[in-house]
């Protein structure tokens, strides 16, 4: 501890070294973590909570807790339940911890804890690869104190994205440590909370193939699939069709009123199938480019 204090004192006299020196990633991580913890507490204290989905989440899991296992019958104020079984389990826990969702302040504190844990995971991942990728410590600033939208998603709106990303970052930390089975298992659990995590699947598949080949990758994929079946078992045994349609609806139409990134577009264009097709084509093209030009350069991430 004394050595760390002396090192911090010395580095504070040399801010350029602290910002640019790769070896100081842990020091900057600790400093920013403490600052961000204070900032997060300040946001909860000063910024009003925004009700968007929290009440609906509680209504959806309340139905499951009351014994309704048919996904088509699980609904909230914002519509039907559209997330896989992992979401139900996680938010059932929140339901009990917050008195049925009524203790919003308690929920915000819980999500603040999730935020700080997620921050630790992300900085651990970056610290693990910082030297090989020559990453300067100052990039951590953009992941912490300046990320107001991330704070908002965690502690002001309490969406399910934070839980899914926390599990995903656990998976990625296992990945950079080459713990293959935990990587696959945690990735699958993250998908069970929110399907958006599947966007990481192509990159993860490339890593598995480069490290294990098809023979070693198939068992890892099978583990992911088995976990999905196990987590969804109560709902699959009750009403398999409604569960698959509700939890894994890849054709679901998103509402313009909830978009943030595409608010610049007129509503008719946002809802047009042609726009969706163009986005998908661009995504596939970028994936192909990364696979050919970046991901297959084995040393760039391992």
Automatic annotation (TrEMBL):
Its main location: endoplasmic reticulum. InterPro entries: Glycosyltransferase_ALG3 (IPR007873). Keywords: Endoplasmic reticulum, Glycosyltransferase, Membrane, Transferase, Transmembrane, Transmembrane helix. Pfam families: ALG3. One of its GO terms (molecular function) is dol-P-Man:Man(5)GlcNAc(2)-PP-Dol alpha-1,3-mannosyltransferase activity. GO terms for cellular component: endoplasmic reticulum membrane. It is a multi-pass membrane protein. It catalyses: an alpha-D-Man-(1->2)-alpha-D-Man-(1->2)-alpha-D-Man-(1->3)-[alpha-D-Man-(1->6)]-beta-D-Man-(1->4)-beta-D-GlcNAc-(1->4)-alpha-D-GlcNAc-diphospho-di-trans,poly-cis-dolichol + a di-trans,poly-cis-dolichyl beta-D-mannosyl phosphate = an alpha-D-Man-(1->2)-alpha-D-Man-(1->2)-alpha-D-Man-(1->3)-[alpha-D-Man-(1->3)-alpha-D-Man-(1->6)]-beta-D-Man-(1->4)-beta-D-GlcNAc-(1->4)-alpha-D-GlcNAc-diphospho-di-trans,poly-cis-dolichol + a di-trans,poly-cis-dolichyl phosphate + H(+). Pathway: Protein modification; protein glycosylation. It is an enzyme of class 2 (transferase). Its EC number is 2.4.1.258. It is found in: Endoplasmic reticulum membrane. The keyword Transferase applies. The keyword ATP-binding does not apply. PANTHER family: DOL-P-MAN:MAN(5)GLCNAC(2)-PP-DOL ALPHA-1,3-MANNOSYLTRANSFERASE (PTHR12646:SF0), NOT56 - RELATED (PTHR12646). This is dolichyl-P-Man:Man5GlcNAc2-PP-dolichol alpha-1,3-mannosyltransferase.
